[in-house]
Amino acid sequence: MTARLEAVRAKVAERELGALLVSNLVNLRWLTGFTGSNGAAVVGAETARFVTDFRYLTQAAAQLDPVWEREIETDLLKRVTDGLPDGPLKLGFDDAHVTVAQHARLERLIGERDIELVAAGAIVEQLRAVKDPDEIERIRAAAELADEAFEEVVGAGIVGRAERDVALDLEVAMRRRGAEGASFPPIVAAGAHGALPHAVPRAVPIPAGTLVVIDWGAQLDGYASDCTRTVATAGDLDPRDREIYDTVLAAQEAALAAVRAGPTGQEVDAVARAIIDDAGHAEHFGHGLGHGVGMEVHEGPRLSKQGKDALVAGNIVTVEPGIYVPGAGGVRIEDLVAVTADGHEVLNGLPKALRTVH
Ligand code: ZN
Ligand code: ZN
């Protein structure tokens, strides 16, 4: 945790700020280990202040390294600004999280002091995109737990069951194995419903002889996992479904092979997109190839046409191409992958050959 404090300090210096206010709770947890629901930190070259309210007095003492100066106050912003020097000071804040109302209040609390509020962009998010070995192990554990839940629920048979019951069972199976919960509401989408990339599971029985897209993940120990498998239910499968599956699998495996430190998210996205385009499905792959996963299920870096950043060792990303044919059906195959210096490591373990389930 103190390595993270030093990393933030280096960024604060690089951006020529005097201090950075960290108010987003996920960023705060990453930085300090604090898991409560109310808190803020101020990080400067010499300072490491942490403010929370009375309810978290004991918890903060247990969770934070002694390097943090802990302060207890109900009104966080008042305490944050009361503790600032008279200036001159450039105080960075995270413009993606601080609301307009909070910004106005900060201005009022600063008053006549020579303190400038500076939009500091996503300093902590950029650091969070590169995971340390402990974080990689936690994400791997979440992925393995999610794999086991899938085996339990899907292995027991899904034909004739409502999509939403299967989704609920996945959540319960993950919770029973120790997950804090699902990292997002699971998607279970059969037949034509699978053509909606973010389908909401319905109270409709899953038929025989169709494809079913299942996208789920666990939240474990503060970290998320994310995986998709498309399975076939026993019965006569439309040959077109099989063809789409084979195309998505080829695209997924080719893009996966391209994941390593060096290429940009855009370049890896293009590998999958070329295969899907060549198969005549260019207009049926309308989302990006993947996204970063960490404490949140969607974070940086992006693997998409907009992904300008080069992948670096320590990134954890999904590789999830899909083909969605409106009115007919869809296929998506998603793996969760750690980027290494010379390649990658897939963190989930379920096979990808088209599996037929009952
Ligand atoms: Zn997913
Ligand atoms: Zn995903």
Give a short summary of the structure.
It is built from 10 helices and 20 strands. Strands 4-3-2-1-5-6 form a 6-stranded mixed beta sheet, sandwiched between helices. The mean pLDDT is 97.
Account of the protein in words:
By secondary structure, the chain is of the alpha+beta class. It folds into two domains: 2-128, Creatinase/prolidase N-terminal domain (Creatine Amidinohydrolase, Chain A, domain 1); 133-357, Creatine Amidinohydrolase (Alpha-Beta Complex), CATH 3.90.230. The chain is 34% helix and 24% strand. The protein has a six-stranded mixed β-sheet, with helices on both faces. It has a four-stranded mixed β-sheet with strand order 8-9-12-20, covered by helices on one side. Strands 7-10-11 form a three-stranded antiparallel β-sheet. Strand 10 (218-220) and strand 11 (223-224) form a beta hairpin. Bound molecules: zinc ion (2 copies). One zinc ion (ZN) is lined by residues 226, 291, 318, 320, 334. It comes from uncultured Solirubrobacteraceae bacterium. Residues 4-130 form the Creatinase N-terminal domain.
Tags for this model:
Creatine Amidinohydrolase, binds zinc ion, 20 strands, 4-stranded mixed beta sheet, 358 residues, alpha+beta, elongated, Creatine Amidinohydrolase, Chain A, domain 1
Task: Provide the low-confidence segments as ranges.
Answer: none
Say which molecules are bound, naming each kind only once: zinc ion
Largest sheet: 6 strands, mixed
Helix fraction bin: 25-40%
| Number of domain units | 2
Q: Which architecture of the largest domain would the CATH scheme give at its second level?
A: Alpha-Beta Complex
CATH superfamily of the largest domain: Creatinase/methionine aminopeptidase superfamily
Strand order of the largest sheet: 4-3-2-1-5-6
Return the CATH class of the largest domain: Alpha Beta
